[in-house]
Amino acid sequence: MTSLLTHSSLWIEPWRDLITEENGHDPRSKYVEQFWLGVIGPTAAWLMRYVAQEFDNSPDGFELPVAPIALQLGISPKAGPRGGLHRTLHRLVMFRLASESHAGYAIRRRLPPLNHAQLRRLPTHLQRSHSSYYAPPKTAA
Question: What is the overall mean pLDDT for the chain?
Answer without folding.
Answer: 89
